[in-house]
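step 4 of 6: structure.
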Amino acid sequence: MKPNQLTIAQARSKMDAGEITSEELTKACLEEIENLNPALNAFLESYADGALQAARLADERRGKGDRLGVLDGIPLALKDNLMDQGRKVTGGSRILENHVAAYDGTVVRKLKEQGAVILGRTNMDEFAMGSSTEFSAYGPTKNPHDLDRVPGGSSGGSAAATAADLCLGALGSDTGGSIRQPAAMCGVVGLKPSYGRVSRYGLMAMASSLDQIGPFAKTVEDAALVLQAIQGADPNDQTTSDEKSFVPSWRENLSGVRIGLPRQAWGQGMHAQVREAVMQAVKAMEKQGAKIVEVDLPYADEALAAYYVIMPCEVSANLARYDGMRYGLREKGLALFETYARSRAHGFGPEARRRILLGTYALSRGYYDAYYLQAKRVQTLIKRAYVQAFDQVDALLTPTAPNPAFRLGEKTEDPLAMYLEDVFTVGANVAGLPAVSVPCGTADKMPVGLHLIGRAFGEAPLLAVARVYEESMK
Amino acid sequence: MALSRDEVKQLADLARTELSEEELTAAEHDLDKILGYVERLQKVDTAGVEPSAMPARTEWREDTALPCDEMAREIILTNFPARSGDLLKTPGVFEKPKGGKA
């Protein structure tokens, strides 16, 4: 086994036992990046010098018995919408092509404080808008399982990098499924924490009431380790919660656990082999002692519609700052309005512009009540529906995505078809609940993801259930 | 629920962006389709339901200036598209438009 193929837990244990160094781990990742990244385009930039320097410092510390955190010396990648001071950061957009991060985002600062090694920045759909990474201004990322297929999106680079062992784990962001769906399509674990669990300070905002940063990892245990490192209330992010910290609490089996299959979700269209793979997982969980219950989850159908109103509205506000004034692309030699208009027209891609226009419409006078306010009211109903469902069950289960990874170019001409890929994942964002995708079988020879949603701030029981399933498949 | 071309142009103005003729046509079509999908929200009975909102904050920090990290300051200045010393240069607010828009 090559060092870059280890899990975070295995690497930690080998480093502590003196069997491997951070430098060896980091070199192995950098070599694999050199080998595979030209074909995959998972990384937009890798930091060979910086990473090796950080790795050597980690080895020095360990030599003196001064290990920082659990992630000390572990090589990880960052989605290109996370601020890493002094590094270029583009959000996958042309409008920030030469932008340099002025500060460390809170999660990046925490990773560095733990001693993690940052390998580089990964590709994404522009400003996190997309489900395939095809809307990156820097070319698509390819799925490591089939180079003609998408890795999912918007965190496709981080998903592909983790799946191809270019790193031991990565961070992504998830607003409607952007961690979980690419995790499913690439065959890795992807976790979206509860809203408020992880600080968004230093994450380029897409939809501020829905965005969360979370880990990609090869195992559920690894995802838990990364979440522990990045979580916490932050005065720089007023939406972070003072809830008790997440501490993993594993289970032997699923006895006493009630798993709900939401009737409305399962009624949606999905690839036959996806249904089959996930039903096999349900049977496996039953064998572990879980009670499987069909539950009513009203408004599951409307969750996607509510999301595609609320999110573009917030996007239109959050992307107003990219106006060619203080940073980013500025078209020169024009008067003020034209500078705004042309900089934004040239700097933004088609999907970003589409969503800005949609949001502008839904927030404009005469339409605000019918669209935005109505969507926010429906959101209240959706939140209540989840609370009621969790009276009867401990976790909700669906496939992560209705289809396995599709071919490049297959859905780029049909925005609505692309949006429907999010049908199972958006509910968790709209309701602010934690959700995880775990690999579960294949469809069309491509990975399939199992999607579990937990109670608010219930990452511990949620991941415990996910891990029992994961272990049972070994 | 069809959006007129003029309405889309107006949206582009509000959003401070430009669309070419082709892009306008594409936007008309795409927005119609998407709005057609989200129409289903109108059928949901939300009488008496409050719009979902963040809990209100009641504690505030002191309104004092905090120092800026020196490296952050340097980078911010380097990111300026046009600079005069430590000042950001922008087009004049009252400058007459060159292309037509006021």
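step 5 of 6: annotate
 - The domain at 3-230 of chain A is CATH 3.90.1300.10 (Amidase signature (AS) enzymes).
 - The longest strand of chain A covers residues 435-443.
step 6 of 6: archive
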